[in-house]
């Protein structure tokens, strides 16, 4: 789920930071630039791991700051396809079920990747798994906000979100809203056994344990009756 990415950058250290050790100033500046930021085709940057190499520091004409080429390793959140992760349901919409990990919210389970058959309840704003029963009936299992959910990573989507120019001025007849781009989105799936809302499977396990306990109790009663009959005959 977390990987080490080796990156290279030119780090600018301002004169106000010259009182610090060079390595300390570089580490602070790298974390300031990258922490909690998404790098295209790399992932969500979490924290600096270590510095691999530090080049010579140069002061360019007209700029009192130093510029240093640095190679470093950074801890990045980018789960592999097929990883199973547990998160919480943030919200539901016709687009699917939106999941949060606390530090990362852009996770979507589309309707095609939900347990089948499922439907979207407009009044509850929740997806519902129509769980089939043995007698042919169905039992509704709701995907409520805040419920822990286990899903498998089935895809990822990176999108360039850097500004490409000044925003266009809207005229009197223009009512278009600027679409917010999500730089990194994870696509998940729960349409297999053992995945989905954790309480679904906890309930199944409890029902199985109750059935086993009842069967053991019946077996004990039968064994007791057989032992009692044998003692009476003697």
TrEMBL record:
<comment type="similarity">
    <text>Belongs to the eukaryotic RPB7/RPC8 RNA polymerase subunit family.</text>
</comment>
<keyword id="KW-0051">Antiviral defense</keyword>
<feature type="region of interest" description="Disordered">
    <location>
        <begin position="198"/>
        <end position="234"/>
    </location>
</feature>
<comment type="subunit">
    <text>Component of the RNA polymerase III complex consisting of 17 subunits: a ten-subunit horseshoe-shaped catalytic core composed of POLR3A/RPC1, POLR3B/RPC2, POLR1C/RPAC1, POLR1D/RPAC2, POLR3K/RPC10, POLR2E/RPABC1, POLR2F/RPABC2, POLR2H/RPABC3, POLR2K/RPABC4 and POLR2L/RPABC5; a mobile stalk composed of two subunits POLR3H/RPC8 and CRCP/RPC9, protruding from the core and functioning primarily in transcription initiation; and additional subunits homologous to general transcription factors of the RNA polymerase II machinery, POLR3C/RPC3-POLR3F/RPC6-POLR3G/RPC7 heterotrimer required for transcription initiation and POLR3D/RPC4-POLR3E/RPC5 heterodimer involved in both transcription initiation and termination.</text>
</comment>
<keyword id="KW-0539">Nucleus</keyword>
<dbReference type="InterPro" id="IPR012340">
    <property type="entry name" value="NA-bd_OB-fold"/>
</dbReference>
<protein>
    <recommendedName>
        <fullName>DNA-directed RNA polymerase III subunit RPC8</fullName>
    </recommendedName>
</protein>
<dbReference type="GO" id="GO:0005666">
    <property type="term" value="C:RNA polymerase III complex"/>
</dbReference>
<dbReference type="GO" id="GO:0006384">
    <property type="term" value="P:transcription initiation at RNA polymerase III promoter"/>
</dbReference>
<feature type="compositionally biased region" description="Acidic residues">
    <location>
        <begin position="204"/>
        <end position="234"/>
    </location>
</feature>
<feature type="domain" description="RNA polymerase III subunit Rpc25">
    <location>
        <begin position="84"/>
        <end position="201"/>
    </location>
</feature>
<dbReference type="InterPro" id="IPR045113">
    <property type="entry name" value="Rpb7-like"/>
</dbReference>
<keyword id="KW-0399">Innate immunity</keyword>
<dbReference type="Pfam" id="PF08292">
    <property type="entry name" value="RNA_pol_Rbc25"/>
</dbReference>
<dbReference type="InterPro" id="IPR036898">
    <property type="entry name" value="RNA_pol_Rpb7-like_N_sf"/>
</dbReference>
<dbReference type="InterPro" id="IPR005576">
    <property type="entry name" value="Rpb7-like_N"/>
</dbReference>
<feature type="region of interest" description="Disordered">
    <location>
        <begin position="158"/>
        <end position="177"/>
    </location>
</feature>
<dbReference type="InterPro" id="IPR013238">
    <property type="entry name" value="RNA_pol_III_Rbc25"/>
</dbReference>
<dbReference type="Pfam" id="PF03876">
    <property type="entry name" value="SHS2_Rpb7-N"/>
</dbReference>
<keyword id="KW-0240">DNA-directed RNA polymerase</keyword>
<comment type="function">
    <text>DNA-dependent RNA polymerase catalyzes the transcription of DNA into RNA using the four ribonucleoside triphosphates as substrates. Specific peripheric component of RNA polymerase III (Pol III) which synthesizes small non-coding RNAs including 5S rRNA, snRNAs, tRNAs and miRNAs from at least 500 distinct genomic loci. With CRCP/RPC9 forms a mobile stalk that protrudes from Pol III core and functions primarily in transcription initiation. Pol III plays a key role in sensing and limiting infection by intracellular bacteria and DNA viruses.</text>
</comment>
<dbReference type="GO" id="GO:0051607">
    <property type="term" value="P:defense response to virus"/>
</dbReference>
<feature type="domain" description="RNA polymerase Rpb7-like N-terminal">
    <location>
        <begin position="8"/>
        <end position="64"/>
    </location>
</feature>
<keyword id="KW-0391">Immunity</keyword>
<dbReference type="GO" id="GO:0045087">
    <property type="term" value="P:innate immune response"/>
</dbReference>
<keyword id="KW-0804">Transcription</keyword>
């Amino acid at each position: 789920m977390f990987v080490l990415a080796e990156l290279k950058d030119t780090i600018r250290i301002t004169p106000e930071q010259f009182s610090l050790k060079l390595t300390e100033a570089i580490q602070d500046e790298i974390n300031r630039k990258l922490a909690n930021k998404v790098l295209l085709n790399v992932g969500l940057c979490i924290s600096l791991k270590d510095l691999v190499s530090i080049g010579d520091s140069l002061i360019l004409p007209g700029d009192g700051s130093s510029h240093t080429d640095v190679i470093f390793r950074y801890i990045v959140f980018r789960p592999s396809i097929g990883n199973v992760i547990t998160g919480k349901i943030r919200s539901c919409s016709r687009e699917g079920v939106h999941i949060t990990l606390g530090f990362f919210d852009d996770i979507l389970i589309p309707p095609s990747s939900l347990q089948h058959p499922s439907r979207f309840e407009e009044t509850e704003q929740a997806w519902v798994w129509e769980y089939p029963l043995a007698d042919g009936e169905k039992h509704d299992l709701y995907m409520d906000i805040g419920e822990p959910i286990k899903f498998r990573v089935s895809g990822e989507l990176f999108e360039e979100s850097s500004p490409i120019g000044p925003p266009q001025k809207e005229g009197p007849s223009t009512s278009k809203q600027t679409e917010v781009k999500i730089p990194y989105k994870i696509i998940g799936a729960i349409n297999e056994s053992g995945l989905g809302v954790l309480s679904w499977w906890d309930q199944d396990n409890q029902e199985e344990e109750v059935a086993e306990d009842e069967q053991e109790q019946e077996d004990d009663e039968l064994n007791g009756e057989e032992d009692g009959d044998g003692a009476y005959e003697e």
